[in-house]
Amino acid sequence: MKKILLTGVTGQVGRALQRHLAQFPLAGWQVVACDRQQMDLTAPEHIRTVVREVAPALIIHPAAYTAVDHAESESALAFAINATAPKVLAEEAARLKAGMIHFSTDYVYDGTKASVYVETDKVNPVSVYGASKLAGEDAIRQVGLPHLILRTSWVYGADGKNFLKTILRLAHTRESMRIVSDQHGAPTSDASIAQAVRQLLDVWEVENSDHTGVYHLVNRGETSWFGFASAIVDKYQQLATDYSWPALAVKEIAPIAAAEYPTPAKRPSNSKLSTEKLAQTFGVMLPAWQESLDQVMHRLTPGVNV
Q: Which residues form the RmlD-like substrate binding domain (predicted)?
């Protein structure tokens, strides 16, 4: 039986992948899941030891340093985890003649393009986090093994720490919220990412070098952070009666410019990513972001994971 080495299973995407691959197993494959204790991404030799012990035919690597603002003051740690670790994993995968699926981000772009980004557009990260993720992409490409680099955006889910959970927490305690309205992208649920990767595993021919490369993997459509927050609150209120959820305190959600909410790390104002390449190459298309949000909201348990 061939093995898949899955990293980052205590993180947002890794947890969703582990859950989905257990629910919809891939015939002839065994998933070996690693958390940060089982694989220290800051220790290259430990990474090599784990990969050699598992001897996978495929590495799926969602684990990452994702603290965007903290990365501005922790650049060495961000690059160790987001650039050096993927390079080591790619080198070990190449030694085993294995493939690799790696996750990247919309933050490799500067956000100045007026329309949606395609995979061939110029990359120009404006934050340490974005630069570290781009360095990881470059390292994998330089190793030259069969790989898919999946750039996603605005990842959230019913579990873990993310924008949806923050909005609901604040909406329970504040009557008014001010949310950035001049940054646009596609909210993408961890569950929809996991479902898409499972589809990819059915159709990706690792040995086909034409498939190797970068793909955008995000929910369809786009909105602003303000639009996303408003949709979250609206959906919660729609479901509150059915599920006997406690009422929200929030009465007003006001749009503001990003300049009114300064952060240590600069964010791209345009994070809209085209997914046509993914659909044309593999026939994989994610649902509209509103549909995925509806699915995530039905999984919430206020008082438990909110």
A: 3-300
